[in-house]
Each structure stands twice: as structure tokens, then as C-alpha cells.
Specification:
Number of strands: 0
Protein name: Ankyrin
Largest sheet: none
Pfam family, one: Ank_4
Keywords: ANK repeat, Repeat
Radius of gyration: 16 Å
Shape: elongated
Length: 161
């Protein structure tokens, strides 16, 4: 018999809703991890599979589960610039200020990669722009380093500058 847990990550990646529903009914592990520590929710969010992400969250997937590098689904959505996925995660209780292995946050990812809609969403929902990573860099520093003037402006307004 095939291990049903090994089917859930590919289904999440592709957004195969009917397969996910069947796996959930069969009690597949919603927080099963692959060799990199990715969970079905992390994979669904990173691949912009909104309905798969919603289904996994509603079924009880751990919203703040992290991969081996400490990256969460919210960090992946911020990195990719998926505002709707980020909003779903935040509305579902994702922690805004978790840090990955190098101390980076979802806000830093958004600032670094010019994902300004996600950056504004995170700031608006209370992400802390003063947090620093292991090198002492803030989201504002990353926005400036990347020439992300709009991001710097969004963060500056939030900090009262």
C-alpha cells in the first residue's frame, strides 16, 4: 500500500483539490514534510495555490510550520509577492514576525524583492519593521540595498519618518 502522506505535497503543489480532499478524508498528515522540510501548506502557498492553501488551513495544517531553513508559508508568499495568499495566511493567524535561520522575516523578503503590495499588507497588519536579521539589517535596509524606493517609503511612513 502506498504511503498516502507522500501524495499530499505533490497534490498541494499542483492545487489538486479533489485529491487533497480525499487525502484529508483518509487522515493524511497535513504537516508531513519532504526532504527539505516543506509542508503541504508551504508548497501550496509558494506555488500560489490559493484553494489548496485554504483547504489545508481549514483542515488544520500548522500555519507557522517552517522548513529546514526556518522559512514559513508567509515568508514564501512574501518572497513570491502573492498578496492574496499572504492575506489568507495572516487572516488565518500566521505570525507576522517569525524569523528564519538567518533572522530574516516575511517583511524583509517583501522589501528585498520589491513585493510592495505584500510589504504594505504586512506593515498594515502590524509586522515590526524594526526587527533585525543576524547581520543587523532591517526591512528598510533591504529595501534601500535593492533600490526599492516605494518599499522604503512604505516602511518609513510606518515608522513615522
Amino acid at each position: 500500500m502506498e504511503n498516502i502522506n507522500e501524495l499530499i505535497i505533490p497534490a498541494a503543489r499542483k492545487g489538486e483539490i479533489e485529491v487533497l480532499k480525499e487525502l484529508i478524508l483518509r487522515k493524511a498528515d497535513l504537516d508531513f514534510t519532504d526532504e527539505k522540510g516543506y509542508t503541504p501548506l508551504i508548497i501550496a502557498c509558494y506555488n500560489n495555490q490559493m484553494e489548496a492553501a485554504r483547504l489545508l488551513i481549514e483542515a488544520g495544517a500548522k500555519i507557522d510550520a517552517a522548513d529546514q531553513g526556518g522559512n514559513t508559508a508567509l515568508m514564501g508568499a512574501a518572497f513570491k509577492g502573492y498578496k492574496d495568499i499572504a492575506k489568507l495566511l495572516i487572516d488565518s493567524g500566521a505570525s507576522l514576525d517569525l524569523k528564519h535561520g538567518n533572522g530574516g522575516t516575511a517583511l524583509m523578503f517583501a522589501a528585498m524583492f520589491g513585493r510592495n503590495e505584500v510589504l504594505a499588507l504586512l506593515i498594515g497588519r502590524g509586522a515590526d519593521p524594526t526587527l533585525t536579521d543576524h547581520r543587523g539589517q532591517t526591512a528598510m535596509d533591504y529595501a534601500a540595498l535593492q533600490g526599492n524606493e516605494m518599499g522604503s517609503e512604505i516602511i518609513g511612513r510606518a515608522m513615522g519618518a
